[in-house]
Amino acid sequence: MISRSELVGSSFPPLRVKITTKNLLDPNYPFQPSRFPFFYGWIILAVCTVGMIMSLPGHTMGLSIFTDHLLLASGLSRLELSNAYLVGTLASGLLLPIGGVLLDRFGARALVIGSSIWLAVTLCYLSFSDQLATLLDNQLPIELYSTIVLVILVLGFISLGFSGQGMLTMISLITLGKWFERRRGFTSSIAGILMSFGFAIIPLMLSSWMNIWGWRHTLVIMAVFIGIGMGVVGWIFYRDNPEECGLSMDGAAETSSTILERTVEGDLQDFTRDQALRTSMFWVVTLALSCQTLVVTAITFHIVDIGAEAGLSEIQVLALFLPMTIISTIIGYLVGMAADRFPLKYMFILMILFQALSVVCSGNMDSLWFRWLTVVGLGTSGGCFSTLSAVALPHFFGRAYLGAISGVQMMVTICLSAIGPSLLAIFKGQFGSYQSGLYACCIFPAVVFILAILARNPQEKAS
């Protein structure tokens, strides 16, 4: 028998196989992006788009499909469920600045894996939330089911908002913005187009799944797709920025013209989070995007009930998403092309005007004309939103502290979006109709419109 000392002293080299988290997250593992025959940023565009689509369950559009089923299973009123969503979304939004700082520190690849798994666990949790409430209530000597199920759903909405609408969306938007400069508007418009189609088609697909397997199994199936599917895609393909892979933004070759362009771009100031918060443009961007999410959240959360109030069936209401998506696709592409050439300020003003149009018209959906104007308003503002949400922050504030700045922006956006469903539910309860609540929402785009007119590009001030 060969002793340990003889093995150590032999001429055979020691076998060392050490797989660590650092190795698994190395930019050149399991392949080198720099060796692709084309610019790896196009792969980033594809996977970031998939990441944004996979965040659908964390958005109101994804949750609204399950709203009536959650109401029936939990026994809560529509106002109680709306308030649970409000509290959960507000709390999840307050956590996002921490998520932004973590993104700057650990990078997109690690966090997209964690966010995908977190979102999947949350969907499984929501699938048996009412059963969990019943189980806990049976252990208590007094009847507290309503309180227990309310707390369980609030916790679920916190987790859902943070992992889906918050982190998975933010990671994908920021990563895409880091890989492109001159083509940032174009690539963001492509991502927005595909995301809009995904957000329009998937609710119909999920609705058919629920008819076959029920809402609980549909949530579990989504969890498998996101937790395993998106988690693996994120690990294999996501990379935080081109520089860590030995590449340049936009895949530019080293020529005198591109060197000159990068020199000019390098003169742009990288704002810290505190510096960005002191600019008026940060608040114009943040509030304009927040108004859009507030309006869309308010309408989509109650879309089936708003349609029923106007005499429309659920299928008729959901069918409005298709033409809305077509308009959003066209506008998103045009805004993306324009964003690479013209001041973004005017595109935000355009988005705000169509926000107001959609809110006013959605309160009169019993009229065919107003119904189509609602589609035009939501489609146009949605097309602007999908592109501008990816383009604006790196354009105005640079890339160095993008995670921390975006974390604050996402916090405000998600917190304000949480107001929408409860606001409409309150007006519905007080006045018996959503119309007055929708009219009240017009105040928000009016205020932001005035701020946008007065705001200036912070890079011009810095220079």
**CATH class, please?**
Mainly Alpha
Number of domains: 1
Per CATH, the architecture is: Up-down Bundle
Any idea what the radius of gyration is? Answer: 24 Å
CATH topology: Growth Hormone, Chain: A
Helix content: over 70%
Task: Report a brief summary of the structure.
This protein is mainly alpha-helical. The protein is built from 22 helices and no strands.
Q: What are the SSEs and their pairings?
A:
Layout: H1 4-9, H2 21-24, H3 41-54, H4 60-74, H5 78-106, H6 108-127, H7 129-138, H8 145-179, H9 184-213, H10 215-237, H11 256-266, H12 273-277, H13 280-301, H14 303-309, H15 314-319, H16 321-339, H17 344-362, H18 368-397, H19 402-431, H20 435-440, H21 443-454, H22 458-462
Structure, described:
With 463 residues, this protein is an all-alpha fold. It has a single domain, classed as MFS general substrate transporter like domains (Growth Hormone, Chain: A), CATH 1.20.1250.20. It is built from 22 helices and no strands. The model is unreliable at 1-17 and 254-260 (pLDDT under 50).
What keywords describe this structure?
463 residues; mainly alpha; Growth Hormone, Chain: A; 22 helices; 0% strand
